[in-house]
Design goal:
By secondary structure, the protein is mostly beta strands. It folds into two domains: 92 residues, Immunoglobulin-like (Sandwich); 167 residues, Distorted Sandwich (Glucose Permease (Domain IIA)). Helix content is 13%, strand content 40%. It is built from three helices and 21 strands. The strands form four sheets. Strands 10, 13, 14, 15, 16, 17, 18, 19, 20 and 21 form a ten-stranded antiparallel beta sheet that branches.
Length: 290
């Protein structure tokens, strides 16, 4: 390769200065994590302002990477779920921006997860219902449902706050530790239960696309709705449903009838919300958009 000419050599400082300025402007992005004082069960909203190129960014919390999605003209967003099992304490979120000509940028945002206690619930149900826990098909069904819950689409399909999917009063809260018939331990409660007479209407809590509609040993009639960007609703113990996988639903649309199928003590609705497969508390969504 020939020697650099004198004019080119004189331009080198200016070129380096230009790259430095480019690097400085590329560093102008900000991170914000809401809510500022999160609790177990909350949905974290991670906002990155100053860029609209989601393919260049990733967010990592506790070794799990999350995609960011466009949020307005000059912003990105990722939703991350904290579950009832998340311990209180300091957490650190890592945001990485990949760059072609310059080293990747790494920024961290720390936040403190507060302490939240959950009550213990003792359930009584018929022995025939309790035996569903031993159904060999139950585990296969659970694995199938979990795989669907972990799906992620790019578009935001939800619209503002969520609506109650059933009109009845809340009968069980999120995060309860549960025991069946005094001595059978059962998994903690991953959603809200609403009183609902058999056959009463069940509504879509928000707009989205139906991922799954079927019947399973423990869940009974089940409908899963993708609200976009990793946010999914699960409606369980349905008597019947009028939608199927691939259907588009709108917020408040009647999609099913309440029932008591699966592992349940009677007719009611279980509403669960999942963020990238992590079960979160649905209740805050009734008053605050994700």
């Amino acid at each position: 390769m020939g020697r650099m000419s004198a004019p080119s050599f004189r331009l080198l400082p200016a070129l380096l200065t230009g790259l430095a300025l480019l690097g400085g402007s590329a560093a102008a992005f900000e991170i914000r994590v809401l809510p500022e004082a999160p609790l177990p069960g909350d949905i974290l909203r991670v906002s990155v302002t100053g860029s609209n190129a989601p393919s260049r960014f990733s967010a990592t919390l506790d070794g799990t990477a999350y995609r960011l999605h466009p949020d307005g003209a000059r912003g990105l967003r990722a939703l991350i779920g904290l579950t009832a099992q998340d311990p209180p304490g300091w957490r650190s979120l890592l945001i990485v921006r990949r760059r072609a000509l310059l080293p990747d940028q790494r920024r961290t945002a720390g936040f403190l997860v507060g302490k939240r206690t959950f009550a213990h619930q003792r359930l009584r149900m018929r022995r025939s219902k309790a035996k569903l826990l031993e159904d060999p098909e139950a585990r296969d069904a659970l694995l199938k449902i979990r795989a669907v819950l972990a799906l992620e689409s790019d578009l935001q399909l939800w619209e503002g706050t969520f609506v109650r999917p059933a009109a009845g009063r809340k009968t069980s809260s999120y995060g309860l530790r549960r025991t069946i018939n005094k001595d059978v331990p059962w998994d903690w409660h991953k959603g809200l239960d609403f009183a609902a007479a058999e056959g009463s209407p069940i509504l879509a809590p928000n707009s989205g696309r139906v991922l799954l509609a079927g019947r399973f040993p423990l869940q009974g009639g089940t409908v899963l709705i993708d609200h976009g960007q990793g946010l999914v609703s699960a409606l369980l113990h349905l008597k019947s449903f009028s939608v199927r996988a691939g259907d588009t639903v709108r917020k408040g649309q009647r999609i099913a009838e309440a029932g008591g199928g699966g592992l349940s003590t009677g007719s009611h609705l279980h509403w669960g919300v999942y963020v990238h497969g992590a079960p979160v508390d649905p209740e805050p969504l009734l008053g605050r958009a994700p």
